[in-house]
Amino acid sequence: MADDPAVIDRFNSLLDYVATQVPDMTLNSLAIDNVDKPAFRQLAEETETRGW
Question: Would you give per-residue pLDDT tens digits along the chain (52 residues)?
Fold first, then answer.
């Protein structure tokens, strides 16, 4: 499904739309993840566990 050309076209259209909303921004990278817990939450929990 993720490699379906229609899905890819919709995703590219979404990125084009986002780019029009933030035209003065230089995007160096884009990370999209599909996990239950975002990385920043994982880091926060590890930090709390270790007492940092």
Answer: 668 899 889 999 998 998 898 878 887 887 776 667 677 777 788 888 777 6
d(CA 23, CA 11): 18
Structure tokens at 10: 């919709």
Note every long-range contact of 23-28, with CB atoms under 8 Å and residues 24 or more positions apart, other chains counting.
none
Model pTM above 0.85: no
Sorted by sequence, the CB contacts under 8 Å of residue 1 that are 6+ apart come out as 7
